[in-house]
Amino acid sequence: MQPTILGHVAPDSKIATKIATEEVFGPVLTVLLYLDEAEALGIADATDYGLAGAVWSADVTGATEFERRLRTGRVDVNGAPFNMRAPFGGYKRSGLGRELGRWAWKSSARPRPSSYRSI
Predict the structure, then answer these.
(1) Which of 31, 43, 22 is nearest to 4 (CA)?
(2) pLDDT tens digit string along 108-118?
(3) Most CB contacts within 10 A, which of 3, 24, 68, 117?
(4) What gap in Å lies between CA 115 and CA 119, rounded to an integer?
């Protein structure tokens, strides 16, 4: 597949609904139009998936506040490099749990207390 950019896509169009709500693997970038941050957040979270996301902004503080509200597993702000030490995993249908570090153990462990009495 050739790298593809779908630009100026209206959020309520058929292509936006399909591309923005399904996991697309490949070099595809969709540029969706939005009126404000509330609408942008709604578009981003309107999918059944949530493996990763990205936020681009000249206002790093605002970008940080926005990315904390996203329901996705990992978020890169302004093209930050992939951090191999950070926990990795998705939300919703993109996975359950985390890989890497102590978060991996905590997300997959099911502690169960047991009590014993000698006989």
Answers:
(1) 31
(2) 565 555 556 56
(3) 24
(4) 13
Name which residue leads in pLDDT, 75 or 96: 75
Give the span between the Cα atoms of 3 and 8, in whole angstroms.
17
Dist. CA 34–CA 53, nearest whole Å: 16
Residue 9 within any structural domain of the chain: no
Distances (CA, A) of 68 to 3, 17, 61: 29, 24, 11
Residue 54 contacts residue 82 (beta carbons within 8 Å): no
Residue 62 lies in a domain: yes
Q: Where do runs of H (alpha helix) occur along the chain?
A: 14-21, 37-45, 60-67, 101-108
Structural domain boundaries, residue 80: 34-108
